[in-house]
Amino acid sequence: MRNNAVIVFTIFMLATMSCSDKKPHQQNSPFQKLTPIEEKYKPLTIAEFEPQGWLKEQLRENLDGFAGRLDTLVPELIMDDRIYGEDRLTKKVKHKNVGALGEDGDWQVQFLWWNSETQSNWRDGYIRTAILLKDEAHLAKLQDYVNYILSTQDEDGYLGIYDNDLRYNFDNENGELWAKASLLRGLWAWYEYTKDEKVFTAIERAVKNMMENYPVNNSQPFYSKQPNVGGTSHGLTITDVLESLYRVTGNESYREYCLFLYKDFSEQELNESAQYKKLVNDTLMLTSHGVHVYEHLRSLAAAYYASGNPELKIAIDKFLAKINDETTASGAGVGDEWIGGIKADATNRGYEYCSIHELMHSYVELFIKTGNSQYADKVEKIFLNAAQGSRHPEQNCIAYLKSDNSYYMTGGLNGDTSDKHQTRYSYSPVHQEAAVCCVPNAARITPYYIQHTWLKGENTLVASLLGPGTVNTTLNDAPVQVSAITNYPFENTLVFNVTADTEFELKIRKPDWVTTYTVSAEYQDESGFIVLKKKWSGKETVTIDFKPEVIAQRDINNEVYFSYGALVLASPIASVEERVKTFPIPGFYNLHYSPKSLTIYEYMGEPVRLSDPTSLRFKAMLWNTGTKNTEEVELIPMGKTILRQVTFKEYSK
């Protein structure tokens, strides 16, 4: 997630050459505010959710592991550096322990914001996980953290990582907005849980302080005299906080500030693919740091909804088309760590866990705004496949980088050893050798998914992302509880127990793979949703059965992959485990995996059959490229694999 100077410079040169002699899209004032657009749905607060089943189990595994213990795994990055308080950055600070290996040199000064990201993204996930599990011990610990953060707020409202001699006064790489975005997202979750007005006031004061010091159309928060920036570009995600404030207060100035930020971001000389003129230029592919690209999608959407300007809608459509070229069978957007103008490839391109989370989050925001179920389908595909397939199925650790076809996890992509410093293609509860950024995002992704399983509309409750759990909310000022009893996606029966005494519309998303299904009550099928509109009385039950089949699909390179319902399947590869590091806390390791015997298969056109419905095991007749024979091969959900083959070239004699 963080930049390496040499690679960034290379990408800069490629981007510069690709931009030469290209005519920009002819636009008509793309940043002019016309008629703002209201969002289709509204997110619920995290306090309204009760996870159940496998999602709750995953939260508990995370909380007992890296999501609850990162501060003890890397205390020097999280506990020893009070970067928002006593250890704020000043002009005198020239070095800070940020935990990553790198070349010596002054260029490292630009990364001094790193620990703010590590700390705040981790605590964002930690806060949400502890809230969802109602874990009193962790909640008490987090209350102390929140109290400390509030104590660091200056009289003028400033919350951040810079002392007076630096704040809001940069001509180069900085983490001003990024440190705020990552911090305030976690504080917002705490406010939703506690309803503590002191927390809300602190957030609002911090944002107003930012808006006063970076005034609309009279400042340049994204200006940098050199175009390769990390924290500066990440800072565009402060739009997450601004949109949360707008949704609660209705204050249009927060949305208008999103438009200003995207305008300034687009007008600066930065090596960022999500800038307006680059997006609308059809000759340019995505090139920059993957996680920047995928998180900036929702910031552009925020700007569009603040303005209603059709030119920004064109930019979103072109952006989505370009992301599609970078999307793998598992739903992930490639970037290892840069996209580099190269299309997705199941074997030769990897994706970062940070990017998995950020692209999922951006699609969530697009679904909230548009109500278009295709975005929820994308969210589900990413989370159930790419995200699950990048976390270790048994140990408490994750892959920093992973590829769909994962033949080795020994540091480099599929066994590559050309870069002796490359450690990202491996499993770790920390990944300190590269950067402690992906593990915090792995702590965030499950609670973010759970918190968006239900949304509200106009007198409507929407089951947007499917999975086990209960929502407790209000409609028409009346309490409503809906429990989803299911093991989806590992089973495809969903029982909804509705407890309410009011009339409202229950909308249940019908996944895009569903062609055959049954519903136990009267319903309407409307644009990707099963809709039940009625007066609910007491406790009522609705049962839905989806009928999945194994489907042979094609990725961006026309390679075949198999899906069953929401799950992408893979041929697991038996591996040899090597513990390359043992942590002082029992049960935590850095792990490498090599194949016991590597066989690459090709697709022969034969159907795949479900051999064991209980454990979701499948049988496929594939061509063994080593033995030159047809072989029966087992397939399982890719989320249950370490080494695997997901896509298959078509066999030809």
Q: What would your notes on this structure say?
A:
By secondary structure, the chain is an alpha+beta fold. It folds into 3 domains: 5-451, Glycosyltransferase; 467-510 and 514-546; 550-650, no CATH class. Helix content is 35%, strand content 21%. It has 17 helices and 25 strands. Strands 1, 2, 7, 8, 9, 10, 11, 12, 13 and 14 form a 10-stranded mixed β-sheet that branches. Strands 15, 16, 17, 20, 21, 22, 23, 24 and 25 form a 9-stranded mixed β-sheet that branches. The longest helix has 20 residues, at 114-133. Residues 3-27 have low confidence and may be disordered.
End-to-end C-alpha gap: 43 Å
CATH topology of the largest domain: Glycosyltransferase
Give the mean pLDDT.
94
Helical residues, percent: 25-40%
Judging by the overall fold, what is the CATH architecture of the largest domain?
A: Alpha/alpha barrel
Coarse morphology: globular
Task: Identify the CATH class of the largest domain.
Answer: Mainly Alpha
Q: β content, as a range? A: 15-25%
Q: List the total number of helices.
A: 17
Spans of at least 5 consecutive residues with low confidence = 3-27
The total tally of domains equals: 3
Task: Write down the Rg.
Answer: 24 Å
**Total DSSP E strands:** 25
Class from helix and strand fractions: alpha+beta
Largest sheet: 10 strands, mixed
List its traits.
653 residues; alpha+beta; Glycosyltransferase; ten-stranded mixed sheet; nine-stranded mixed sheet; 17 helices; disordered N terminus
Question: Strands, helices and their partners?
Answer:
Elements lengths: L4 H15 L22 E2 L5 E3 L1 H12 L1 H8 L1 H4 L35 H20 L2 H16 L24 H19 L2 H17 L17 H4 L4 H11 L2 H16 L8 H4 L10 H18 L2 H15 L26 E2 H18 L2 H15 L10 E2 L1 E2 L24 E2 L9 H14 L2 E4 L2 E4 L5 E7 L2 E8 L7 E17 L7 E3 L4 E3 L2 E18 L3 E5 L5 E5 L2 E7 L1 E8 L6 E7 L5 E3 L5 E4 L4 E8 L4 E9 L5 E3 L3 E2 L3
Parallel strand pairs: 8-11, 20-25
Antiparallel strand pairs: 1-7, 2-9, 3-5, 4-6, 7-8, 9-10, 10-11, 11-14, 12-14, 13-14, 15-16, 16-17, 17-23, 17-24, 18-19, 20-22, 21-22, 22-23
Helix pairs in contact: 2-5, 2-17, 5-6, 5-7, 5-17, 7-8, 7-10, 10-11, 11-13, 13-14, 13-15, 15-16, 15-17
